[in-house]
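Worked example

This section walks through a single chain of length 374. The input is the sequence exactly as stored; nothing has been trimmed or padded.
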Amino acid sequence: MRVLHVYSGNLYGGIETFLHTVAREQGLQPGLTHEFALCFEGRLSRELREAHATLHLLGAARVGRPWTVWRARTALRELLQRERYGAVICHAIWPQALFGPVVRAAGVPLVFYQHDALNGRHWLERWARVTQPDLVISNSRYSAGTLATVYPRAPWRLGYCPVTAPVTDGAPARRARLREELGAGDGEVVIVQASRMQEWKGQRLLLEALARLRQVPGWRAWVAGGAQRPEEERYLDGLKAQVVALGLTERVRFLGHRSDVPALLEAADIHCQPNLGPEPFGIAFVEALRAGLPVVTTAMGGPLEIVDATCGVLVPPSPATLATALLRLIEDPEARGRLGAAGPARAKTLCDPSAFLHRLEQALRDMPAGAPRA
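Given that input, the structure is written out below as tokens.
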């Protein structure tokens, strides 16, 4: 079966990581052939080409410029007329709203991959509601719990995002080299957060907690992630000012955009992303578990399905409680080792790419739809 994944492609975060993983690992399930249709060139399009995936460009589409939407829809319509796909998967609500009607009109089974929690009130969600998909795949039970606000009658399946195991060959040397490059001493405990520069991701809360540990020796923090929008640039500037005000300039380092997050995780000792709002899923947490890091995060949303007491610590969104959890792991290498050691097995159980691709094929072949499948 040939499957076409439709997405925007102009930013980079969890969905882009997901699609790149599918492109790299699709050979694990030969029954499915994955192709990709994007509106924008960017990091994702480069990674898909590097993975030798078939990529179709629909053209930049912006809702505020209706003619660009019309052109992109026309490009997709012509692609669906020219090629034969067993299903089209629209990732997130924006492509579902823009391109769902085109897929429906072409008679191809339509799948909505739900990567976010929904509330039915946003104008994009109201637009997308017009075209009900044949199947919804939700990235967590938490996300699925919000699906009825937009698609109350659509059948759905659970689809935790696939996460590839890190390359272990040469890991000790890479770890030592990167730690030296980023100024971490041999005995220092490195706390890492690698995420989008958005306030709800909890960078500010992490800094507030770390300020309570100023007098504790032997730790430092790396904050990875580059600003991709003007509001994110303003937020990042505020974080840097906060570090200065809290007296953490010698302990906290902003790394900017990184394409080597697996290496960062490999070089760190604790992963901490203390979200202020519910994360729909949280690929970053699974990547950290895969790397053997104990995970510290707030007890809400998708991470409740990922992190348990065997591999991490769940806390309320409070600087004092977060500081206490981090202090325990900084000072207790046995606890760090025990929680970290359980992470890879937990991540594999939830997000093994081979198992994901097998379940995806089964879901698509079992999907009720009136159109024949390629």
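What to look for: The chain has two domains: 2-162+353-365, 171-351.
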